[in-house]
Amino acid sequence: MLSDRIRRLLGFPDNMISKMDQNEAPYPPPHYIFSSLQDALESINYYQTDKLYDEVCSLYAEYAGCSADRVFLAPGADNFYDEFFYHYRKSGIVVAPRPTYFLFEEQATHLNYKVIGPKLRPDEFKLDTDTVIEAAREADFIYIDNPNNPTGALISEVDDLRAVAEETDKALLVDEAYYEFMEGDSIINLVEDYSNLAVLRTMSKAFCLAGLRITILIAGDDIKRQIYKKILKFRVPTPSLVVARDALLNRDYVEKIVEEIRRERRRLIRELNRLGLKAYNSHTNFILVKTNGEKLVSLLRNRGIYVKDVSNQLNDYYMRITVGDKESNDLLIRTLEELLDA
Fold it and tell me: CA-to-CA distance for 142 and 306, rounded, in angstroms?
């Protein structure tokens, strides 16, 4: 639930009570991870250093279980998308699931790329690997968000993604922004074996640091050679690097956050289905819900509960709900009961 102070400070709409539309963590990080932040703020007259950037890369490599020379940082996934759009452009075609992360698709369109790829199989929203491999023949590279946004589904197993990496000669970018919340294996262990594979991660979700914009790329050998390493070291601001370092050094809180969100996710799915809506199983910190009409999102917004309308991506009435804290989830359930009974 949003306080008046936070709403005013960040410029949220005046009527917003509960923010459940952008898949942020509903909790702030614990204060102890800001142990060095004041010193960083008092030093912002200096540029960030290679040493600080490299230290965060090494700490994330330890967390992820990969070698530090494969880890790169940027303030947002779009920076890494641009690396792929620029370096791999030939035909101006990219393969991605349908639907896929809308910002990736918007950026592709902005850069005059055509996005092609298989529709996720309904109900379970699974990706057909053979169709991806076939589509990749005419594409420049492949993007797969797994778990998928907006469905929340784990659309491919590791063996399926391995087949894509093996059977195409195209760069494969697997977006694991919601890795900590999924119940399944990461593909990250394959990066050592497949030079055309890269994995995206973030500290925005489970680490509760969305406002600091820390995105991580773990790259195979061929992709490593394409990354413009020198400029990346100057893109992430000093305060973001300092807090990321503190968070990675004191990351016990992440497990507690993930456990709480998973518990609330299960409860919210159960309650939404009880109300007669169709809430899908999720491997993320959000839930895809099929509604009974286009007005439900706007009716919730009128009550101060902001969820995201994703109907345009799925050709039917759907909304995506970020899993909130218990108070926010209770308010959502009560409000939906009132709206659906009206």
Answer: 32
Q: Does the predicted model carry a pTM greater than 0.85?
A: yes
**C-alpha to C-alpha distances, 187 to 37, 150, 236, 286, nearest whole angstrom:** 33, 20, 26, 21
The yes or no reply on domain 32-249 and CATH 2.40.440.10 is no
pLDDT of the chain, 342 residues: tens digit per residue = 898 999 999 999 999 999 999 999 999 999 999 989 999 999 999 999 999 999 999 999 999 999 999 999 999 999 999 999 999 999 999 999 999 999 999 999 999 999 999 999 877 899 999 999 999 999 999 999 999 999 999 999 999 999 999 999 899 999 999 999 998 899 999 999 999 999 999 999 999 999 999 999 999 999 999 887 788 888 999 999 999 999 999 999 999 999 999 999 999 999 999 999 999 999 999 999 999 777 999 999 999 999 999 999 998 899 999 999 999 999 999 999 999 986
Residue-range domain boundaries for the chain: 4-29+252-341, 32-249
Number of CB atoms found within 10 A of residue 110's CB: 9
